[in-house]
Amino acid sequence: MPRSDERAFPDPVTAGRDVDVIVVGGGPAGSATATFLAQGGLRVAVVERESFPRFRVGESLIPTCMQILERMGVLERVLGHGFQVKYGAAFHDQETGESTMFDFRPGRPWPSYTLDVHRAEFDQILLEHAAAQPGVTVCQPATVEAVTFDGDGVRARIRDGAGAQELRAACLVDASGRDCFLTTRQGRRRPRRGTGKVALYAYYRGGRRFPGREEGHVRIYYFPEGWFWYIPLARDETSVGCVLHQRTVKARPGDLEALFAEMIERCHAVRDNLRGAERVTELYSAANFAYTVDPMAGDRFVCVGDAGGFVDPIFSPGVFLALQSAELAAQAICRGVRAGRLGARQFRGYERAIRRGTRHFDRFIESFYDRAFVDVFLRPRNKFKMVDAVTGVLAGGSFGLLSPTLRLALWGFFHVVRITRWVRRRQGIVLESRLDW
Ligand SMILES: Cc1cc2nc3c(=O)[nH]c(=O)nc-3n(C[C@H](O)[C@H](O)[C@H](O)COP(=O)(O)OP(=O)(O)OC[C@H]3O[C@@H](n4cnc5c(N)ncnc54)[C@H](O)[C@@H]3O)c2cc1C
Q: Which atom of ligand 1 is nearest to the CA of 144?
């Protein structure tokens, strides 16, 4: 891509526009989109509703995030900030007592480490980095209230403390997160199978840390009512959250505080880890969070990050998908501006790439609620590189980085899951899906 000082595009101002692209939202998806667009020589306005730093859930990153941060030119700053370093993940099933631990292995196309981040700080670094790019303006706090598209561009009404103003651009990127700004106005948002989940979460200080390289491992604990995440952060803080079926929440009288306390008591590992720890944030909740959106892109618009769809957070793909979709969307927009074509056809390749890349995560996530899968997953054997294939997907290799050998190994892994399910059924063991928890 040409750098901004050798602008290869018609000037937006002479074309009757204020900027080339308006980005709604300054979370990781919005900041990354703006950064990549600026690297491609475009002028961008990012509009972010909230003042930063602001709390956000989603602290556990996966290794491929590091490579995208490097391409954004912000990796060094992120690494220098002092976030918790992480080398793997650990899973434990309270019902069976089985546990397993995965390390991100060296010698792969992605790094063997990543970070667990305080999102308030991480998101601020990314937005400041975007603002420092030539051609990027950040309007904050300011809200995009309405947009209208025509054959020639898009007009957005933006409101900040001083009142409302209009911005005109060639194209709009929706990076508004789970608000799904565009889809709620002109598209369709469908719940994914097995949704109807509720997450309750808070930060603790003084929770149990694990020795050495395992300190930063994200920990997932299955227990009878659902599952917990336990994500060690810097400054002796830990993000702790449980994911429950809505039925479990509705069946319990009392408030969410009492429910969260009860779930901690019922999940023994979390209860033990938090003995003596103090809670340092309020209790947050999110419900019905997994969905697809349609369309993901169209004439003069592209949805990125959570605004383009949301998968269950069990394997921590959210921030990676936000960054990866941002990069792919920016490439498609730069090509489109250069060719003078910003219609829906221009973004079909983008949409295909996102759906294809997300498919592996989808499969793992759906399988995570399947007991036959968990049986195999918690007792992994690296026969035919199956563990390598699994860690490859969990590290974020699903966007074209998995070698044919690892893809074959992944197929083998799911074949073993199918056989396990069949054997269990023959033994008369009912493997009901935990999707209905
Ligand atoms: C329970 C739960 C646990 C999770 N755990 C993880 C995890 O461990 N790891 C992980 O990687 N991901 C996790 N995620 C997912 C992660 O939080 C998201 O995928 C990630 O934040 C997506 O980034 P984004 O930039 O798309 O959206 P966001 O981070 O939500 O940013 C969107 C921004 O848009 C702004 N905005 C919205 N509407 C407007 C408007 N009209 N005008 C101006 N600004 C607007 C908002 O203020 C916001 O700052 C989790 C999610 C949930 C619900």
A: 42
Q: Is the dihedral of CA 104, 107, 110, 113 positive or negative?
A: positive
Task: Kindly report whether the global pTM for this prediction surpasses the value 0.90.
Answer: yes
Residue range(s) of every CATH 3.30.9.100 domain in the chain: 197-287
Domain 4-83+118-191+291-357 has CATH 3.50.50.60: yes
Q: Please choose from 46, 50, 56, 57 the residue to mutate so as to test ligand 1's pocket, defined by most ligand atoms within 8 A of CB.
A: 57
In the chain, which segments carry CATH 3.50.50.60?
4-83+118-191+291-357
| Burial call 47-56: b when 16+ CB within 10 Å, e when fewer | bbbbebeeeb
> Is the predicted pLDDT of residue 66 greater than 60, yes or no?
yes
Report the number of secondary-structure helices (H) and strands (E) in the chain: 13, 22
Q: Is 197 in the pocket of ligand 1 (CB under 6 A)?
A: no
Q: Is the CB of 313 under 6 A from ligand 1?
A: yes
User: Residue 134: phi, psi to the nearest 5?
Assistant: -60, 130
> Where does 197-287 sit in CATH, by number?
3.30.9.100
Q: What is the pLDDT of residue 107?
A: 82
Ligand 1 pocket check for 319: Cβ under 6 Å: yes
Confirm or reject: Cβ of 305 under 6 Å from ligand 1: yes
Calculate how far, in angstroms, residue 319's C-alpha sits from the geometric centre of ligand 1: 8
The 3-state DSSP class for residue 342 equals coil
DSSP code at position 383: G
Q: What is the pLDDT of residues 119-134, one digit of tens each?
A: 999 999 999 999 999 9
DSSP code of residue 427: T
Q: Which atom of ligand 1 is nearest to the CA of 307?
A: 26
Give residue-wise pLDDT tens across range 41-53: 999 999 999 999 9
Q: What are the DSSP E strand ranges found in 192-330?
A: 197-205, 218-223, 226-232, 237-245, 278-279, 284-287, 291-294, 297-298, 301-303, 309-310
The answer, yes or no, to whether any atom of ligand 1 lies below 6 A from the CB of 50, is yes
Q: Residue 374: what pLDDT?
A: 73
Atom of ligand 1 nearest to the CA of 62: 11
- Ligand 1: atom nearest CA of 29 is 25
